[in-house]
Amino acid sequence: MRAATAQSKAETLIEALPWLTRFHGATVVIKYGGNAMTDEVLKEGFAEDVVFLHQVGLRPVVVHGGGPQISSALDQLGIESTFTAGLRVTTPEAMQVVRMVLVGQVGRDIVGLVNRHGPFAIGMSGEDAHLFTAVRKHAVVDGEPVDIGQVGEIIKVDAGAVRALIDDGRIPVVSSVARGDDGEIYNVNADTAAAALAVELQAQKLIVLTDVEGLYANWPDDTDVIDSLTGDELEALMPTLSSGMVPKMGACLTAVQGGVPQAHVLDGRVPHSLLLEIFTNEGIGTMVMP
């Protein structure tokens, strides 16, 4: 029995070999959020996966949001949370909480989990070294723009500091907060932030972890996951997608249109989904290619 188990482990390692060779030295941007962020076992598994990628020669960069954590902090402080067209209305008061939670709590937690394995992760905010510059974004309701406060759209990425950290053998952990040229701070969508960073870093892959198995062919009638599709096919599907999938698939589309060879949406609830996607022949989730 032991020999059989050992044999299957060896086969797994050998199956990973061509992928290890292919992605050695490759930059991979991972958007981390949702359920995988609130379950303790999955959180530890995510940290292990990221360290594994680093130790076998890939260059992982983590970009995170923190919707559930922000909502819970706003509740505790008695600050009302409202959404317009799927975007959180962010008053100056709410923005202070968003920044505090993303940079001071969620980012710290990820850094702490990764650094149990060694001095790898360094947390940074999109404000640091002008990484993300944003302008105010308006929600559109019935064709009319609506002001939703300090919610931003990234217009510029300056990834010099991230590159320096990667070259130093570190794992950057980036909070999706941006600066404005007007001195404002902005809450930016972490999916779109990850895509913008992947394009700027000329990453080999963008991986978006979500709470679903991937992109469904014909939701809700059909729960078959689309294994792979091209950017053009995805663009045609975009108007039909559920509101939760729009930013995720939009991020994949932005990435491949910006020169990233592969973008993936994976189920973050599956333990070690990152490793299954990168190092096995089957892969999981949905892959978008140019």
TrEMBL record:
SUPFAM superfamilies, A to Z: Carbamate kinase-like
Chief place of localization: cytoplasm
Subcellular location: Cytoplasm
GO CC terms in record: cytoplasm
UniProt KW keywords: Amino-acid biosynthesis, Arginine biosynthesis, ATP-binding, Cytoplasm, Kinase, Nucleotide-binding, Transferase
Domain Aspartate/glutamate/uridylate kinase: 27-267
Pathway note: Amino-acid biosynthesis; L-arginine biosynthesis; N(2)-acetyl-L-ornithine from L-glutamate: step 2/4
Chain sites annotated for binding substrate: G66, G67, R88, N187
InterPro entries: AceGlu_kinase-like_sf (IPR036393), AcgluKinase_fam (IPR004662), ArgB (IPR037528), Asp/Glu/Uridylate_kinase (IPR001048), Glu/AcGlu_kinase (IPR001057), NAGK-C (IPR041727)
Protein EC: 2.7.2.8
Broad class of enzyme this protein falls into: transferase
BP GO annotations: L-arginine biosynthetic process via ornithine
Function: Catalyzes the ATP-dependent phosphorylation of N-acetyl-L-glutamate.
NCBIfam families recorded: argB (TIGR00761)
Family the entry assigns: Belongs to the acetylglutamate kinase family. ArgB subfamily.
Protein name: Acetylglutamate kinase
Species of origin: Nonomuraea terrae
